[in-house]
Write a structure and sequence with these properties.
It contains 4 helices and 8 strands; from the N terminus they run E-E-E-H-H-E-H-E-E-E-E-H. The protein is α+β, with helices and mostly antiparallel strands.
Amino acid sequence: MSKFANPTKVTTGPNTRFSYANVWDPKSINGGTPKYSVSLIIPKSDTATVNKIKAAIEAAYEDGQGKLKGNGRSVPALSALKIPLRDGDIERPDDEAYADSYFINANSTTAPGIVDAKCQPLLERSEVYSGVYGRASVSFYAFNTNGNKGIAAGLCNLQKLRDGEPLGGKSRPEDDFGTYDDEDFLS
């Protein structure tokens, strides 16, 4: 790591799971600017990553004091702002993928770099889907837009480390079909 490390940038641990992975094509929400996005599900047991994220949010808060103050007289307390680290047990109690986990929704107007475990570029869209496990690099920054103030997460890059059960109810073709030789059409 560089001696000039960015305190607002974090690389998540290897057990991070990608959900709502819109990482190949930007998507517009409610007519807004199209963005690449992913929800990063981080196990609560990954305390190293969670602590790095909390420190990066604090650093983004410190760096963004001027932006957060805006036209006001003072900077709101961090506890009064919207922050990207959210508790899956509280906010998504009916979704088992988010159980005993935190999550961060990260997005970017530019495409993230996507690599495999050996840092080779992944070009096959089917390789990265909602449910895959990997690491993500995310930069935290302060925002003050239309009266909304807080800290947001910018999506930088993704690294797929291993497959996982697809999320969202969609099955994989290899799970739906056996090989042609496996089936006995005469029975």
